[in-house]
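pls design
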C-alpha cells in the first residue's frame, strides 16, 4: 500500500460498521475521506465510532469524516475522529456516485469534485454551529476556490504561454493513470478492461490562471514590500564562470585527506567489535570469563543444534476440563470472558382430570330392631341413654347396638295362688340401632347376650334375672363406590407433569417477548423432564383429596400441578453455543489453562437455574499434525542457551503437558546455542505401535 494514496468512501443507509470497514480496507489507501450523507445513521452512535476508530488505528489508516449531520459530527468528535463539517447545506446521495449495481464504494477525485460542485455553496455559516479548530481555514480555502471557478473569463490578458505550460502539466499528470495497469501487473486483456472502466477525462478542464487570482488590499500591501526578481537567461560568460567554480569544488573534494575517506570503514569495524563484545562477552576473558569469550564466541557461531519432537496421538492425549463461565447482562459491554444472557421466570399450571379406578363396597344402611326384656327383680330396672346391646353376627363378629330411647323395666310381681306362688316378670320393649352401618351389623334372632349400662359392668342375659328375646335384626347393607387412592393419584400425576413440562416453552416465550432483541435458550429451561419429578419443585393439588369416596355415576377427580420455570434469553443471533466457542478459549488463556500445542473442545454445558454462571465441560486436544507458531517458539525458548540436562528437563515438561510425546536433541556440545538461527525444530507425527 502506498503511503500517500487517498480515497473517498461514500456511506450508504444500508451500511453497517463492519461493511464500512470492509469498504475502507478494500481501497488499500492510507488516507480515506468518509462522506456521510444525511439519513445515514450508521455512525451516529458513539459505540460505532469507537469500533471504526479502533479498526482504522490497527490498519494504520488516517480517516477524515465529511458530513452535514450534526449527530454524526458530535459522535465522531467525541470519538476523536478528524471531521469536516458542512453547514448551510446538506450532504445527499448524488446520482453520479452510484455504480451499475446501485452500490457505492470508493470513488475517484473527479467524481468527488463533481459531487461537491453539485452541492449548493453556503453563503454564511451560523455562529452556533460547532466547528473544529481548522474548519475556518478550510472554509476560506473552499470559498476562494469557488470564486475562482465562478469568475467569468472576461480578462483579455495574454495567456498563451501559460496555456502551453498547463497543457504540458495536464499531459504529465495523466501519465501515472496511463501507466497504472502496467504498475499493477495487468495483462493486455485486463488493460483493455481497465481502460474501458476508467471515467474519461473531461474535454476541457478549468484552469486557474494568475490573472484570475484577486488579492485583498492587505495582501497587495504585503506584496509591495517583497523584492521581485525578473526571470532571465544567464549570459554565456556567467555560465562559464559557474562551470569553473564547479570544477574547482570537485578538485577540492578529490584532494581531501585519506583519513576522511576511510573514516566510515573505521566506524563500521569499531561497531562490529562492540557488537561481538556485547554478544560473546569480554574478548580477553576466554573460557574463564562470564561469557564464552571472543574466540569461543566466534567458534560458537558455527555450532547448530536440532531438536526433534514427536507429536502425541490425538486420540489418547485428551485432557478433560470443567470451567465456570460468568453470565453478564446483555445491556453491558461485551466481555471476552463472559456470555451475555438475561434470566427470565414464568409461572405455569396444568390440570388433569381422570376417574378413580379403585371400586369398593360401601355400607349404605344400618341394622335396627326391637328387643323384649323380662325382669324377675322386685325392683324396677332403668336402661338410660347410651345403653348398648352386644350380639354376634353369622361370621362370629361382635356387633353392638345402642338403645334409641331410654326405658325402664317394671319390677316383677308375685301372686299367691294357694298351692303355688305365681311370679309375673316385669316386661318392656326397647328399640335398638346398630352402631356401625352395613350388612355386617345384621344378626340372627336371640343373638344378643349382653347389656352394657354406661359405667356399669355388663349384664349377662338369659342366665339370671334378665331375659332378652328378639327376632332377626336386619337393615344393614352396602353399595358400590369409587374411592381416591394413592395409586390413582400417582398415575394422574405423571400425566400432569408431562403436560406441565410441555407448557414450559410457551410460558417462557410470553415472558421473553417483554425484552426486545432477545431469544429464548430452550436448553437452559429448568426444571425440565426428570428434574421436574425428582426435585419435587412443583406444587400438587388433588381435588377431592385422597381417600374420598366417589359415586359410580361421577367418579372423576382432578390433579393440578404448578411450577415456576426459569431460563436464559440471549441477544438475537448470538446463542450461547456460539458465544461459548469464543469465550471459553479466551477464559482458559486468561488463567493459563491451555498448554502449548493444545486447543479446547466443548463437549457439554449446563445452567442450574440459580447461579449466575454456566458450567462448561470439555477436553483439551492436541492441535493436529503440526505445532502452532506459539508452541514452537515456547519449545525453542525453553532450550536456548541451556545445558543439556536443563534442556531435557524443559522438554520433559512439555511431554507431561501432553504437547509432545517424545523428543531427541541432536547436538555434540554440553550447552545448546544461544541464538535462534543456530536452533532448528523438527516436528514428526506420532508413530503407531505394532
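designed seq:
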Amino acid at each position: 500500500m502506498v503511503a500517500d494514496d487517498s480515497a473517498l468512501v461514500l456511506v450508504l443507509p444500508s451500511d453497517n460498521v463492519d461493511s464500512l470497514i470492509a469498504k475502507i480496507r478494500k481501497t488499500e489507501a492510507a488516507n480515506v475521506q468518509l462522506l456521510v450523507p444525511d439519513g445515514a445513521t450508521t455512525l451516529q452512535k458513539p459505540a460505532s465510532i469507537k469500533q471504526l476508530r479502533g479498526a482504522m488505528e490497527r490498519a494504520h489508516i488516517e480517516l477524515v469524516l465529511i458530513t452535514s449531520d450534526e449527530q454524526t459530527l458530535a459522535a465522531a468528535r467525541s470519538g476523536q475522529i478528524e471531521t469536516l463539517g458542512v453547514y448551510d447545506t446538506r450532504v445527499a446521495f448524488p446520482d453520479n456516485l452510484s455504480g451499475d449495481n446501485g452500490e457505492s464504494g470508493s470513488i475517484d477525485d473527479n467524481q468527488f469534485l463533481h459531487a461537491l460542485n453539485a452541492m449548493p455553496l453556503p453563503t454564511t455559516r451560523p455562529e452556533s454551529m460547532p466547528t473544529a479548530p481548522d474548519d475556518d481555514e478550510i472554509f476560506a480555502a473552499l470559498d476562494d476556490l469557488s470564486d475562482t471557478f465562478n469568475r467569468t473569463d472576461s480578462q483579455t490578458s495574454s495567456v498563451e504561454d501559460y496555456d502551453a505550460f498547463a497543457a504540458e502539466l495536464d499531459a504529465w499528470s495523466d501519465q501515472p493513470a496511463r501507466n497504472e495497469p502496467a504498475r499493477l501487473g495487468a495483462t493486455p486483456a485486463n488493460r483493455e478492461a481497465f481502460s474501458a472502466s476508467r471515467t474519461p477525462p473531461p474535454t476541457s478542464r478549468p484552469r486557474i490562471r494568475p490573472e484570475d487570482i484577486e488579492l485583498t488590499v492587505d495582501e497587495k500591501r504585503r506584496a509591495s514590500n517583497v523584492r521581485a526578481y525578473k526571470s532571465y537567461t544567464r549570459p554565456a560568460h556567467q555560465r562559464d564562470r559557474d562551470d569553473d567554480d564547479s570544477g574547482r569544488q570537485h578538485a577540492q573534494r578529490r584532494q581531501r585527506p585519506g583519513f576522511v575517506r576511510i573514516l566510515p570503514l573505521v566506524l563500521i569495524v569499531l561497531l562490529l567489535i562492540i557488537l561481538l563484545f556485547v554478544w560473546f562477552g569480554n574478548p580477553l576473558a576466554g573460557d574463564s570469563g562470564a561469557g564464552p569469550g571472543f574466540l569461543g564466541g566466534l567458534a560458537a557461531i558455527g555450532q547448530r543444534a536440532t531438536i526433534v519432537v514427536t507429536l502425541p496421538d490425538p486420540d489418547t492425549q485428551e485432557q478433560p476440563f470443567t470451567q465456570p463461565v460468568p453470565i453478564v447482562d446483555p445491556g453491558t459491554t461485551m466481555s471476552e470472558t463472559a456470555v451475555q444472557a438475561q434470566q427470565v421466570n414464568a409461572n405455569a399450571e396444568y390440570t388433569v382430570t381422570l376417574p378413580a379406578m379403585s371400586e369398593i363396597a360401601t355400607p349404605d344402611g344400618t341394622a335396627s330392631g326391637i328387643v323384649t326384656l323380662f325382669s324377675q327383680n322386685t325392683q324396677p330396672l332403668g336402661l338410660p341413654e347410651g345403653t348398648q346391646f352386644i350380639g354376634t353376627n353369622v361370621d362370629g363378629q361382635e356387633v353392638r347396638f345402642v338403645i334409641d330411647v331410654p326405658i325402664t323395666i317394671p319390677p316383677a310381681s308375685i301372686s299367691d295362688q294357694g298351692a303355688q306362688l305365681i311370679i309375673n316378670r316385669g316386661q318392656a320393649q326397647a328399640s335398638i340401632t346398630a352402631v356401625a352401618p352395613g350388612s355386617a351389623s345384621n344378626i340372627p334372632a336371640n343373638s344378643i347376650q349382653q347389656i352394657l349400662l354406661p359405667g356399669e359392668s355388663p349384664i349377662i342375659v338369659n342366665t339370671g334375672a334378665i331375659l332378652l328375646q328378639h327376632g332377626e335384626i336386619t337393615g344393614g347393607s352396602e353399595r358400590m363406590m369409587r374411592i381416591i387412592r394413592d395409586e390413582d393419584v400417582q398415575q394422574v400425576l405423571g400425566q400432569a407433569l408431562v403436560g406441565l413440562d410441555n407448557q414450559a416453552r410457551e410460558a417462557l416465550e410470553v415472558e421473553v417477548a417483554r425484552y426486545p432483541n432477545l431469544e429464548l435458550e430452550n436448553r437452559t429451561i429448568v426444571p425440565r423432564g426428570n428434574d421436574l419429578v425428582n426435585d419435587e419443585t412443583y406444587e400438587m393439588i388433588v381435588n377431592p383429596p385422597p381417600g374420598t369416596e366417589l359415586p359410580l355415576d361421577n367418579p372423576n377427580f382432578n390433579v393440578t400441578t404448578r411450577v415456576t420455570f426459569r431460563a436464559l434469553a440471549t441477544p438475537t443471533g448470538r446463542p450461547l453455543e456460539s458465544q461459548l466457542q469464543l469465550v471459553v478459549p479466551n477464559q482458559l488463556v486468561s488463567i493459563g489453562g491451555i498448554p502449548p500445542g493444545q486447543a479446547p473442545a466443548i463437549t457439554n454445558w449446563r445452567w442450574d437455574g440459580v447461579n449466575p454462571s454456566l458450567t462448561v465441560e470439555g477436553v483439551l486436544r492436541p492441535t493436529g499434525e503440526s505445532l502452532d507458531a506459539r508452541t514452537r517458539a515456547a519449545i525453542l525458548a525453553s532450550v536456548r542457551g541451556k545445558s543439556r540436562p536443563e534442556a531435557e528437563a524443559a522438554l520433559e515438561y512439555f511431554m507431561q503437558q501432553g504437547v509432545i510425546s517424545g523428543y531427541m536433541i541432536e547436538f555434540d556440545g554440553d550447552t545448546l546455542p544461544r541464538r535462534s538461527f543456530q536452533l532448528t525444530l523438527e516436528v514428526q507425527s506420532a508413530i503407531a505401535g505394532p
